[in-house]
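ERR on first pass: missing label on line 2. Operator R.T. fixed the label and resubmitted. Corrected input:
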Amino acid sequence: AQKITQTQPGMFVQEKEAVTLDCTYDTSDPSYGLFWYKQPSSGEMIFLIYQGSYDQQNATEGRYSLNFQKARKSANLVISASQLGDSAMYFCAMRELSNDKVIFGPGTSLSVIP
Amino acid sequence: NAGVTQTPKFQVLKTGQSMTLQCAQDMNHEYMSWYRQDPGMGLRLIHYSVGAGITDQGEVPNGYNVSRSTTEDFPLRLLSAAPSQTSVYFCASSYVGTEGNTIYFGEGSWLTVV
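pass 2 clean. output:
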């Protein structure tokens, strides 16, 4: 069954340090895509990064990188050089390409400390 | 750039009333979906569609109805509102398959059922 797990309800990181947010997934579909979204306190959903299951390299977008370990079914988000504006909820999501259904994990609340 | 437009932004309903949340996108996306987000939680998929005339149930479909008569519009109907449906509702759209590497969200609709 399609499932996303984020085991860290809350995380703290010092400003300018790197932080890793964990995401594991379960699917029987051989083809899928993985997403990370940021939701600040204002409520909007902001797209950060995408990784396809057949992509050979880990995705990177500026300070965001996705540590994709297919055999372990994990897709952790790494934020480098944390900024105060990174304080937000972070959601991992997965799309199964057989039906295009997209589900989200429960999220991780990140707080960046000055 | 209209993107994904949801209306209304705020609504208060009495128990038993019906209403429709409207969602429109101008990006010619095949995939559209509705999520609900309860306080402090992730997004749960209500219904989704991969094209006009095609809809399917998500994780929490009970109490909600959808239709997809055009590519642009995907309204969500609450047939008989209950306090348990108090939530923030997000509409989202994207291309399907490997083209769907970014999911676009509306700004959210805050619904309170009293």
